[in-house]
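debug: dumping io for the single-chain case to check the tokenizer round-trip. Nothing else runs in this session.
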Amino acid sequence: MRPTGQPNNTRSAKPAVVFLCVLIVAGTIGYSIIEGWSLLDSLYMTIITLSTVGSRELAPLSTPGKLFTSLVIVLGVGTLAYALKAMVETLVERSSLIRRRMQMGIKRMSDHVIVCGYGRMGGTVVERLASRGTPIVVIERDPELLESLSSSRQLYVHGDATDDSVLVEAGVERAKALATVLSHDADNLFVTLTARSLNPR
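debug: decoded output
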């Protein structure tokens, strides 16, 4: 079984990038030999062929040149598709890994403070608590605010604080306090009552 928190063995984009560079060099040399073009013209032809931008050839291709171009296109499209897929898989895996590490960090916490809402007031509360060395878990649903939390390495839960499961994920049963600074008073009251029912302390 793979240890928790370790990334999966996703495909690496590095081999595809290396092969693409080799393909550019090989294409440049190939066009130079087959068509007798300069290295600059051959490089240009290789780039527009690999990128499939649809530009016209520099000059009419010979039969060997057409066959070579077909080979470059097939290899280039396959390589680009592989590299794109590998990069997407890496980004998804990295995001999943960050989330797992975040969850593990929260599960290890106790006697922490949960701050519901990371707006202007919530940010001030977090800053004051952090200056005192108080362990904090923030609950926020705005993706833009989450980016700020992530960059500051602050533990957070992405979700709606009025949802019981989100409070549980934030460790409300082990928390010593909760500050709710949501934009609506009704939501703040609901979160307070829910938190009290989940943790009478």
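debug: round-trip ok. Residues 101 and 146 are 15 Å apart (CA to CA).
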